[in-house]
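Case study 2.
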Amino acid sequence: MMAQHLEQDLIGTLDRVEKGLLAACDERGFWEGRLSSSALATATAVFALHCEGAEKHQKLIGDGLLWLSENANRDGGWGDTRQSASNISTTMLCWAAFSAAGGGNEHEELIDRTRRWLLRHAGSLRSRDLAAAVDRKYQDDKTFSVPILTMCALAGLPPGDRTGLWPHIHPLPFELALMPRPLFRWLPLSVVSYALPALISMGMVNLENRPPINPMVRFLRKGAKKRAMRVLARIQPRNGGFLEAVPLTAFVVMSLIGAGRNQSNVVRKGVEFIVRSVRNDGSWPVDTNLSTWLTSLAVRSLAPCGEAYPWPDGISPQTTLEWLLDRQYTTRHPYTDAGPGGWAWTDLPGGVPDADDTAGALIAVHLLGRDNTRDECLRAAQRGLKWLLDLQNRDGGFPTFCKGWTDMPFDRSSPDLTAHAVNALSFWSGEVGASLQKNMDRALEKALHYLRRTQRHDGSWIPLWFGNEAHPQQHNPLYGTAKVILGTCRVPGIRSPVSRAANWLLANQNDNGGWGAARGLPDSIEETALAVEALTGTLSAGWCPAPDENAIFNAARKGVQWLIRRTQQGRVVPAAPIGLYFARLWYFEELYPCIYTVSALRKFRHLSCSQRSGADPEEPDRPSGC
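Prediction:
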């Protein structure tokens, strides 16, 4: 049970954070959020605009360089966010942007500091050493190493190097993009499934600057250029932004211009997208928004209150439900060839359906559905569940976008995605037809086997889409472990692994009550809230061995106290860069700490009330009192 003063502080904190979260809801019933500005995205956008027309985009280029100069780290490098440590990728891209588009001596002092940073971290400014430093970071995955080195090569870096970077850039076999999609999993692709635009554009610019020695390969690739451009045009969204991502779109634009395709519609539409995406301060984010993902998370954090909670004027859960149902894909997606039924992370044209967002939307639809829309919700759910089941890999886990395309990280199964899919299946279990239920049961059994097999010896799981820059391997076992616990609390048959995971959370709580990615690492609101919610979930599900129950409750209470202090009782809710975009590109999202804090505090408060009253902890919370 909570002491009276703690309960009062919790109620006040929860009320303020809830009000902030609800105030962020758009009048159309969804949460758009705001992603952090990115030095990497800004550098690539500036360079792409410089390539397309330096005079034409002079103001945008100047504003972008000014933002970069004001947000450089003191050591001379750049991180992905204002809170991030300098890294080799972003620093090299900013170096390229200033070297090509800076002009004059205005930024010479900054560029000199950047060169000194690169000397310390790459060993020298020779092409071979710079390329080796980037390759060490990304290893076999060329999804991001090739674009980074290509932009630097197009910028003429490093200056004075006789051979240049082109001999050190892995030539991407863009002709493979012409093969039928079902064959992709058997092809020797060196980029992940969603990076087809990079594969095509980077392969073409490399062909122009470093033609293959083998005449047959050279002939094959030259003959494939026109058809590859048609593929690229076909998969480009109508707004021009590939995956709604400024870096990916900018890489495509600069590479096609470097390959002599200046006048192509792909370049024109890509430039228009970049221009539209700039912020008032001259910066660019890595992606436009995560509206569908954030809405699903927000619904889940608020859903126990249902319609009893005063949503913003003119908005109701029904409004949000209709918005989510409209976001479901009803046709085959041209980008990944995914069938209808899934959801993407955004409502914008550049989105691509994926496992995490489909699972989140399925849960949100279930929570929001009412009697008068239940049939419509069930039809949408059946399409989404079939889409999700079709994505499951042979190992029982779920990947992000495409089933078994490659062995690259974003095509492999991962515990966090798998647990989320398990949770979605459990929400709809018993409400679908016999045939679909049978397939769901079989998929669930395979998924649980995958989760048991991938749990580490210490009881944790490593996620895919979230990381922590302070962790030695930039992993985030806290996020992965909490997400698996939360995703499997409703599912019998995995009690022992979840108990071990809860013990890992206990062992990795910092002395001040907060959590980071692991014990001793800086704690954050996002990670602490997830840990509190996960521990509370194990208690609500009754999965904790009796001796551990008090320890788990006390750890969760310490986490709640930390959240109250850290947020100044809900008055300040700062975000941390735990978001890990493709190829280790960091970001933070301003709504993450609000959403996770609401979820954690509501669940903990309800558990405490249930313990005091003897009520069922699975019953929905009530907005006033316990």
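The CA atoms of residues 15 and 570 lie 8 Å apart.
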